[in-house]
Amino acid sequence: MVTAQHVRGVPELVVEIGSPSTRTRDETVRLRLYEGAGVFEYWFVETDADVVRVHRRSGEKFSTLELSRVAEAAFTTPLMPGLDVTLDRVFRD
Asked: I need a labelling partner for 87 at 20 to 30 A (CA). Which of 12, 51, 53, 65 fits?
């Protein structure tokens, strides 16, 4: 995947921290781009709402799970066995 000149291939995981100025583009244009390219997971972190949306490949499309700090959610991923992160830790003040 990494060559002397550049990186080739599709990443398995993309993580983006949302910004009010780019949120619409991130969750429409980029979401479709990553889905079409074959990215396995796209995590969109919305810091102002303490939410993480996990878009995980299911066949040719993403299925989406929204996790909230308020709901005391935690997320895991098959890409990193053993990872179990609570949103309280992610959004710690």
From this structure: 12
